């Protein structure tokens, strides 16, 4: 597979199989000496304090001040008032015995204020540089108020669209997750974590979380070692090699052992095999969750298991602050184990330059929504929106009027997607607003029809139908609200919600050409709806600049180049679905569909290969699918060698010809299969 390149007219693209060079941020000996010197001065309680991460309590009450002064807290999440951050830091640095600075963390997942497409959307761009730029801008915005640690990238391989967190991932493919995860890490961290605009990245969730049973969050996973190493671990190994400053445990258990208490993963693989020296933080309350997992008796037992399995920082279980010191005194956790965890968090603080430079400087100019940020976000929308169908309708040229209808046509909050915490919907430009302001010569007839994607009541749909009747073309913005995807937003039915299909039928009855634009957090099953329309653009919640970016594509200011980072199923029953499934002993062929079986047929074997009687073996759209307004022709490929030996590279070349005279991007995919030889 290769990544986005400009294909002006006819060029040769070489495909190189291999990983990008790792950029590591190894500590200096000097740092290690400072860590050891500090560690020697610390009491057991102060050590445990460094391992305690707590959430914003909504201010700075007296008891919190006292905790900070006595070194009982090492880091915070979700404190976002810069003045409060400065004051808390002052207490830690100036009033605590050893003056160890705090770190302030936050889930900056696809933007802090300027919201970029959700990671699943960014993955559709296949553009490392753009993903890195998005992360850089996110870090600049968040660090301006004092956030120096983000819990991103999420590099969980996601093959089940029922799982709400598919929105936060780069999709189903190991290589794509690897490459884009590394790009995001580079964007957040730069090559100098001491830069005040750098944020420590967090590779999460370690590991296998995307394989949760039936796409339900927090659920069980069973992943054999071979699949773990082939599919789930490589993005994390690459993240470690790229110098990701932190890792986060996942909520799931794997083969019966919760990640948070998993010595094999956290010690054998992460520390011993990969030599990782960053911080391993638990997920929110995941130490405590080992009790209902049936793996720990109580919170104290959870603290013991987590510490002995290499979990450094306890996020919001209070297991460490309540029990870790006692466990050491009782000999159930060695002080050496605690010291190792403390080394890791101190190392992070040194790496971030917090000992030298603990305070932020309050910005004199508004650091948010800068022209550069909005432009990058717009480009990201353009490169992330996938053209799935086009029967000669797009791009729209010479139209005098358009109907802008549907629940996502003017939904500033919802188009930003999951994890857009704190972003201002007033800076989220909707398709309706963009078309009105940027295309003043086109008459816009607007009516949402359904106020939200889940609305079942058709009483407002008549207004949208009326708008359609008056227009040359109908732009139907369908999809799902932000609140229907993301953490704990799993669905058993992933078709269009509410009365959207009914609304589409009513629009169809007008006989006008229909362009359906889907704005959603996951693949939606919508075969019948696609049949009804003339063109389909699919955008995974594209963020603040949804409107301008999508309008650029609709009206031909930009050419679609995005390709699916996930397989789109026809039916929910096909899940989990992904392109690189195993071949099976009876790969699908001889397909007989249910409707082709005569009524009253006697028992006989049909096809006897691996497929569903009602869905066949094909998805609605395969991984990597995506059209353009131009077409590309591929010549036969040539290989630099027919044999690939260990540690060698083969170059695969082919001519790719852009057959229409539009300058356009494309992504060429090369998929290989290993056979036992
Ligand atoms: C739980 C989520 O699983 C994780 O991804 C996130 O970083 C933490 N909460 C902190 O908000």
What does this structure look like?
- This protein is of the alpha/beta class.
- It has a domain at 3-7 and 43-351: TIM Barrel, CATH 3.20.20.
- 30% of the residues lie in helices and 14% in strands.
- It has a six-stranded mixed β-sheet with strand order 13-18-17-16-14-15, sandwiched between helices. Strands 6-5-4-3-12 form a five-stranded parallel β-sheet.
- Strand 14, helix 15 (431-438) and strand 15 form a beta-alpha-beta unit.
- Helix 2 (44-50) crosses helix 13, helix 5 (119-125) crosses helix 14 and helix 14 (371-384) packs across helix 19 (546-554).
- It is globular.
- The two termini are 23 Å apart.
- Residues 5-27 have low confidence and may be disordered.
- It binds 1-deoxynojirimycin.
Short description:
It contains 19 helices and 22 strands. With 677 residues, it is of the alpha/beta class. Helix 6 runs antiparallel to helix 14.
> Helical residue percent?
25-40%
Structural class: alpha/beta
| Overall geometry | globular
Quaternary state of this entry equals: single chain
Strand content: 5-15%
Tally the helices.
Answer: 19
- Low-pLDDT residue intervals, each spanning 5 or more residues: 5-27
The CATH architecture of the domain at 3-7 and 43-351 can be named as Alpha-Beta Barrel
Order of adjacent strands in the largest pleated sheet: 13-18-17-16-14-15
The average pLDDT score comes to 94
Q: What's the Cα radius of gyration?
A: 26 Å
Describe the largest sheet: 6 strands, mixed
β-strand number: 22
Distance between the termini: 23 Å
Enter the CATH topology name of the domain at 3-7 and 43-351: TIM Barrel
What bound compounds does this protein have?
Answer: 1-deoxynojirimycin
Looking at CATH, the homologous superfamily of the domain at 3-7 and 43-351 is Glycoside hydrolase, family 3, N-terminal domain
User: Would you state the CATH class of the domain at 3-7 and 43-351?
Assistant: Alpha Beta
